[in-house]
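Fold this sequence, please.
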Amino acid sequence: MKNLTVYECTKYQGTFRRCIEFAKKCGLPISKRLSPTLYYANSKSAWGMTLKPPRGKILIAITSGLVDDWGDKNKNLPTKRKGSLCSVLFHELAHTCPGSFDHGKSWKKWVKVLNDNGTNVDLHPCGKNPPNWER
């Protein structure tokens, strides 16, 4: 994650907090180290990411392109991405559960719990509509 710029995402804090509350109600053992603040990141390889340092807060960041497209700045991107913010947030929240930092059995178990409660999280690490550079 060299040269990754991360900065606070003020616009979607309420959505992020509602996703955290819903995930907890579903029974996800979300890490107590999770920062309650959502961040933007300049990543060009994923819609969201969970940054887990050895110490300190775990950060969840969304790619600014994911939400920038809501303003129709890029007409070539599929409109389905407009509904993917919560899916990406739930995907990343599952990564904060013990033993779930990868896309292995534990992570898939927690995504199944979320999906059984109607969240429609995609198992693909980049979501249903990966960025142009992943197509």
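Residues 68 and 74 are 9 Å apart (CA to CA). Confidence is low (pLDDT under 50) at residues 70-80, 130-135.
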